[in-house]
Amino acid sequence: MQPPVPDTSVSSGFDSAGPLGASRRRAPDALSVAVPVPVVPQDADADIDMAAVEADTQTALKAVSPESSFSFKVLTVNIHKGFTFFNRKFILPELREAVRSVGADVVFLQEVTGNHVKHQDKFDNYPDTPHYEFLADTIWPQFAYGRNAVYTNGHHGNAVLSKFPIVRFENRDVSISGPERRGLLHCELQIPGRSVNVHAICVHLGLMEAHREQQMDMLCELVRNDIPAHAPVVVAGDFNDWRHRAHARLEKGAELHEVFVQANGKAARTFPARMPLLRLDRIYVRNAIGHAPVVLPLRPWSHLSDHAPLAAEIEL
Description:
Layout: E1 15-16, E2 32-34, H1 50-62, E3 71-78, H2 92-102, E4 106-116, H3 119-122, H4 131-136, E5 142-151, E6 154-162, E7 166-173, E8 183-189, E9 198-204, H5 209-226, E10 233-238, H6 246-254, E11 257-258, H7 259-264, E12 281-286, E13 289-295, H8 298-301, E14 310-315
Parallel strand pairs: 3-4, 9-10
Antiparallel strand pairs: 1-7, 2-5, 3-14, 4-6, 5-6, 7-8, 8-9, 10-12, 11-12, 13-14
Helix pairs in contact: 5-6
């Protein structure tokens, strides 16, 4: 494989994403894509009025007043481009079923393939759509993708899947130097019945500590300068922070607090998934409370990714 080449088309501001269910032009080669997926019943013959179900759901959500509490479930996982450890087997279809089973409202994904021209001919179960779209399927009506690494045969990056409307999004380039390309995928989510939007940032930081320090500072700058001080923020992903430097830096620079540290006194072990030793993956919040954080069990996750996934309830 040739080394990644710099992507000079990094977006510099928020892109617009219309209301849930609106039609958008699909742009598979663009840096960031947010497209709704139509919600359809799993069984076409089932006697279920899905329009009525959706209407009842929206009515219940809108009944939530700005003063009352509201909780939603988040999941973060590095999916390793849909391959098992050491790239021995392509298992994206199995991974999709596992992600569905968690029942998360918002999913933060790292190492998501947007396109690869050779894999579709090599693997029988390789989808003909971008992996973020394949994973979203009928469960998450909205998704956003931020292309980071670009190479001869395709590209990959971060993605956010959401059951709530994504009203704006941006993929911010935080690459430092050399071929390693990194980005912060920042999505603004509209929660029905609430006057303030939730800001979700999907993170995959660099392998070098000096790069991570600068990238964390850029994350703090984004949170301080581009997000209202009273808005809820959820930052999740693969921080590669094996020396545990992020907690103090993000708390001081952006008042972000890690949910496992708050609950258990330390971050969760997530890598390698089969025998987790390193605490690389995190869920940070601001103006929100993390409840019941959990590292998802070895089965089936240990053979679906090299990182153990994290999940938590976020209360606004």
